[in-house]
Amino acid sequence: MDKPKHILLIIGGGIAAYKASELIRLIKKSGMTVRCVLTESGAQFVTPMTLAALSENEVHTTLWSLKDETEMGHIQLSREADLIVICPATANLLAKMAGGIADDLATTLLLATDTSVLAVPAMNVRMWQHAATQRNIEQLQKDGINVMPPDEGDMACGEYGPGRMPEPEALMAEIASLMGSPFLTVPGADTDETELGANPLAGQPAFAPDQHRPLHGKHVLVTAGPTREPIDPVRYIANRSSGLQGFAIAQAAAEAGAQVTLVAGPVHLPTPAGVMRVDVETALEMESAVHDALPADVAIMVAAVADWRANTKAEQKIKKKGDAPAPLELIENPDILAGLATHDKRPGLLIGFAAETEKIAEHARAKLAKKRCDWIVANDVSGDVMGGTDNSVHIVTDTGSEIWERMPKSDVAQKLVQKISEEI
Ligand SMILES: Cc1cc2nc3c(=O)[nH]c(=O)nc-3n(C[C@H](O)[C@H](O)[C@H](O)COP(=O)(O)O)c2cc1C
Q1: Domain boundaries, position 283
Q2: Distance from the CA of 13 to the center of ligand 1, in angstroms?
Q3: Would the CA dihedral through 192, 249, 22, 2 be positive or negative?
Q4: How far apart are CA 135 and CA 264, in angstroms?
Q5: Are 341 and 350 in contact (CB under 8 A)?
Q6: Ligand 1 pocket by C-beta < 6 Å: which residues?
């Protein structure tokens, strides 16, 4: 499985340093990891504690740390990153970089790296327009540094003009584009997050230290949402699955410290913080993404995978002929859950979801035997479960079964993750 992309974020001593906190949240939400380096002046604007809590990583502030140099030296800091982002890049940092000066941790690691660098300048309009700053920018671009031009507008110092730091969402989009990752979702780009309610802490990571979390060091694979099986360029076979339950489980597993891969069918939901998301459309794509994500300690197959797909996909839109509709020939999709059960990298704990409308427990037990998985979580979808926010489930295992009465899907997720933690 691909490791999550990793960002090293250098925060310089500018008034816009506060925006780095929001940027960290967006980076984590997109499924990447982030580690911060804070300059001495940067620490006048934001605290290492804030950055550590948000990034869930130690914050590095000095070159002269005996502990850091033995555990995570300044060279290593830059080498482990896929991209170094300087935000805000002060006039001072830009000048030092252009001149090859290395007199603190930030500038030393910038001189010692061959990793791509994105500088996000933010400063007073006159500082930005100063001939020295413009000369330095030109030099840095010649040296291969990516420079994101500042916005124009009202500045914190009361002046107007270019020099303002772009908003975190725009920074995140620039980072995603430099990483060239097709799977990287820029949170908020195609989702109306206001739908999720006004909770200001929504999407924030939990703050318990990693090693104290029950799933620390475990890889949990989750599938969620429906699949969409094309008939022609405009029509498809799908189902009513919203993805809410699978996303809630992915979030609960990440909060429990797991490394989580979420293979998601077409849904409009934001990626939970700290989760690596792979977007797919069809059952065949989902099967291949699931296999690519192995090995996993736990796999929870929540997605409502279409049982059938059209045997052929018409290249052009199928036209009405005025009489009977053209017959649609369907063929069976692969059984992703059963396929995992016999895979040579079978996850240690394999959990299937079953959507039932009658004889819930009886059908779930039959599915457990047929699919050769360890647990079946059966939900009664005869009511408003699909697309709703609540769920009531039967958990069927080799040794017995439990009924969890109706509760929010987020509570089902927490309870299930708790049960998994106890099991493994
Ligand atoms: C209140 C205040 C706000 C500042 N804002 C900025 C800024 O937005 N951009 C900038 O380039 N420098 C700014 N400076 C100046 C830098 O903090 C100063 O040049 C410092 O040496 C930068 O250190 P660093 O580049 O190591 O972080 C500001 C200074 C103060 C006191």
Answers
A1: 206-312+329-423
A2: 4
A3: negative
A4: 47
A5: yes
A6: 12-16, 39, 41-42, 90-93, 122-123, 127
Counted residue by residue, the chain has a size of 424
Which of 414, 422, 419 minimizes the C-alpha distance to 391?
414
What is the predicted pLDDT for the residue at 360? 78
**pLDDT exceeding 70 applies to what percent of the chain?**
87
Choose one of 41, 104, 129 to mutate for the ligand 1 pocket test, by most ligand atoms within 8 angstroms of C-beta: 41
Protein residue with least CA distance to atom 29, ligand 1: 14
Same domain, 93 and 227: no
Q: Using the predicted structure, report yes or no on whether residue 72 has a pLDDT greater than 80.
A: no
User: 176: CA distance to ligand 1 center in Å?
Assistant: 27
C-alpha 11 – ligand 1 centre gap (Å): 11
What proportions of the chain, in percent to the nearest 5, are helix, strand and coil?
A: 35, 25, 40
Give 349's pLDDT tier (boundaries 50, 70, 90).
Answer: very high
Encode 22-69 in three state secondary structure.
HHHHHHHHCCCEEEEEECCCHHHCCCHHHHHHHHCCCEECCCCCHHHH
pLDDT above 70: residue 305: yes
Active site residues: 157
Identify the three-state secondary structure at position 355. Answer: strand
The total number of structural domains that make up the chain: 2
* Measured distance CA(19)–CA(11) in Å, rounded: 10
Distance 66 CA to ligand 1 centre (A): 28
pTM over cut 0.85: no
Nearest CA to ligand 1 atom 6: 14
**211 and 166 within one domain:** no
Same domain, 36 and 128: yes
Q: Calculate what percentage of the chain has a pLDDT beyond 90.
A: 54
CATH number, domain with residue 121: 3.40.50.1950
How high is the pLDDT of residue 50? 93
Rounded distance, CA 50 to CA 38, Å? 11
